[in-house]
Amino acid sequence: MKNIIINTFVLMLIVSASACVNKEKNTKSENKEDINITQNHSDVFYHYSIWWAFVNKVFEGDITAGELKTKGDMALGSYNLLDGELIMLDGKLYQAKEDGEVLEPNDSLKVVYANAAFFDVDGSFKIQKAENYDTLRARINEQLPSKNFFYGFKIKGHFKYMKCGGLNKQTPPFQEGLDVLIPNRPIFERENFSGTMVGFYCPEFIGNINVAGFHFHFVSEDETFAGHVMEFEAENLTVEYDKMHEYQFVLPQTEAYDNVGFDKEFQYKKK
């Protein structure tokens, strides 16, 4: 009888120890999964559609504004039919229309092209004065740890002058590509106000998949002025950047993309 009691007690200890080990393993596994999710969010550059297709009159995509919000909390791009510049800041989407109006789009609105990321600050620095776009790019180039990676940016400050470009809404059948539309885009200007530039840097090896170098969009603090950044003069800038080493590339599943010919090549000024 004594042996039975002892054996039963030993068996209970073994079962209890095994349960503790399994619980610890599961906890570690769950924690590891949580860590990976956080790291993936901060390290992934999400890219929808190819720049070369966008240049060659593929102006309709199959991802919605709501879906794009699941890919990042900052973004830039354009909506279907080029119906406004796309800007996302701190998880909020903006649509800068061709007449200068700035709206918060419905989640069902479709996106033709976008770059997005979950912004995680890896570094920051101040710029007391930036006379122009070239000055800003030069200062950022001095600060980046390496130009062989992808970066996201938030640049906040006071803007003595800002010139933004929009896009004219298109109707099918599409006649012109970005090589014609961008030089003839609507222009918006404003002086003495505060706001934030959001954007990305892609290394030169990106080729025609995306915009090489820097690409910035902008939204004012009062949310009434936005668009693609063209020229500016600013002061008291805070530059935050997120270094990313993973690139998620998603192509549209549309008839237009199926049949596009990559005939034209067009890039913004590379720097």
From TrEMBL:
Q: Which PROSITE patterns match?
A: PROKAR_LIPOPROTEIN (PS51257)
Question: Does the UniProt entry include the keyword Amino-acid biosynthesis?
Answer: no
**Which major enzyme category is it?**
lyase
Protein known as = Alpha-acetolactate decarboxylase
> Which residue positions does the secretion signal occupy?
1-19
Is-annotated flag, keyword GTP-binding?
no
Determine the domain of life of the protein's source: Bacteria
Q: Which organism is it from?
A: Litoribaculum gwangyangense
Pathway given for this chain reads: Polyol metabolism; (R,R)-butane-2,3-diol biosynthesis; (R,R)-butane-2,3-diol from pyruvate: step 2/3
InterPro entries from the UniProt entry: Acetolactate_a_deCO2ase
Enzyme Commission designation: 4.1.1.5
Give the family, as the similarity comment puts it: Belongs to the alpha-acetolactate decarboxylase family.
